[in-house]
Specification:
The structure is a homodimer of 351-residue chains. Chain A is mainly α and 351 residues long. Chain A has helices at 6-15, 35-46, 57-64, 71-102, 106-133, 137-146, 148-158, 173-194, 196-207, 212-242, 249-273, 283-300, 315-321, 333-337, 340-345. Bound molecules: calcium ion (2 copies).
Chain lengths: 351, 351
Amino acid sequence: TFVLDKDKAEEAFAAKKIILGRETMTFNLLPLKYSWAYDLYRTMKANHWEPEDIPMQKDVEQWRSSSELSEVDRWIIMMGLGYFSAAEGIVGDNIIHVVRELVTAPELKLVLGRHAHEENIHADSLLYMISSLGVNPHECEAMFEQIDTIRKKNEFVTKTSLGLRRDLDLHQIENKQLFAKNLFVFGQCMEGTQFYGLFGMILSLYRQNKFPGIGQMFRYTLRDESNHIELCRNLLMDLVDENPEVWTKEFKQEMVDLMTEAVDLEKEFIRDCLPVNALGLSSEEFLQYIDYIADRRLEGVGLDPLNPGIQNPFPWLAEMMDIQKEQNFFEGRVTEYQKSSSLSAVDDDEL
Amino acid sequence: TFVLDKDKAEEAFAAKKIILGRETMTFNLLPLKYSWAYDLYRTMKANHWEPEDIPMQKDVEQWRSSSELSEVDRWIIMMGLGYFSAAEGIVGDNIIHVVRELVTAPELKLVLGRHAHEENIHADSLLYMISSLGVNPHECEAMFEQIDTIRKKNEFVTKTSLGLRRDLDLHQIENKQLFAKNLFVFGQCMEGTQFYGLFGMILSLYRQNKFPGIGQMFRYTLRDESNHIELCRNLLMDLVDENPEVWTKEFKQEMVDLMTEAVDLEKEFIRDCLPVNALGLSSEEFLQYIDYIADRRLEGVGLDPLNPGIQNPFPWLAEMMDIQKEQNFFEGRVTEYQKSSSLSAVDDDEL
Ligand SMILES: [Ca+2]
Ligand SMILES: [Ca+2]
């Protein structure tokens, strides 16, 4: 129950905008205009987790054993550690230095701060995995820098962020479109689609009882990603709502083309780096899974799917990503942060 | 136990700098160079708290009662809500858009992200207090904007931040000094000194059993501030260490003069707005307390104190700020995040 001065509240409310709203360095959240942003902030913090909460003993035992793992299993883990150490950093930088810098309403800055904070937690969790397993971090890094299909994935996203880190006159429609494109590329193409090849592989290992600690952390990470995707989706939708001139037919086509490019790059990466068959999965189905995810992202922002009617070939993966169905999964402290409100808000059913 | 490729590790280590180090958007924390930064990150997260953990029933009862509070008590709370809602926002913006943008080592970005996150939590806690009491937020805001002595405090800090939000060639010594000054003004003058007038008032109320929930949240906030002050202090010290040309006699004098100005502004604010005597405190001692704090900040960064040998007139305030002496203070979930490692690291004894 907030008590508000009605006239002033209406004035303050009207001054709140996604971009070009009242510029203030003070943090007057009230009156809340983008209540989805504050709700999402609460959902995200209810999902709070810290890497040390998750035991890594079993993972370390498996990693050191000569019989429990194949070289393929180790390779996938190395790829996961290397890729996400870099990718989460790129996302965090973009959220902080591009998106939070350009939005003007305090509740948007609040939830973007939480997003950036979760990228920190993910980076810290990767450090925890690397140090627990005793992996040489330079090996991860080198693999990462030398693999062409990963480098291309990164270039795809960084080209829509670097230019936006400096003064940008958002009164111009081209610049509004650059910002909209950034939100789409990072939220829907990168976090929303290009993360899912490796997520799928690591959860496949987890399903085979390999790397239970790492698998668990990736499940928490995936739950966080759902919220990041939703945050970028809401921001984009409200930006378009307030600036309808952005959302032209040509621009929508450009977004669909970008998703097509993102999917192609992810498939190249999978063919090049992810030994899908060795985990007992069909590569054809694995690629179809990426198409399926990409279409969910396109539909999420009101764009036409690339493959209408496509089915999810891995319903077990959807189950595994859907933490709410498996309450016992949570143990100890994490459970306490897991409140019922947050469970209903994150819906991974369609994945 | 980290396994590192020795040559590459040495190379990566050497490339890590406070400023002008290897620029990377990826988040390769290893090898850790600024280990104080990672340790502080862990301390900070061990202190994690959320506003909803703290009951506000008693505060609300008192606020609504016509007999339990004086108008002075209410005024102090309104000042606290208004001042910190704005001030924490200014600090968070500076940490994100100035400091994190300029530093280059990933572990520094990690701990600065945690700092920014705690400003978010503080903003959220103020929202929680405002809405629990049913205070009109526009009243807080208006008070805040119309009070000259507060406006001056803000101008004092924002003038050292706004110019730094854009491209800054840090190869030039003047610009390095601008950055050093920013760290000093925000960490030592603002969070380190100018926050303490209101902190002292609110904890005085708390000592009189008024506003137990708000008092508790401010104690958590104070504990966080200790770490923010320490973070800015370490950053400044390491920046100077790596760029000794910054730390000239003239520059050191400028820092001392800035602290003198900060103290004068805080004293003006106290005389103007804080009814110290009405809480049973001596105004002379209260102003001496600010002098005492300011000297601790100057000494912390190796500068001469303004009032050598000055004593802390309020030892009870030091006790109250020192959470580690009062274990029972923590209840429920917060206790679990309070680990022994963090308790020893935050030392408020001297306050
Ligand atoms: Ca993410
Ligand atoms: Ca602070």
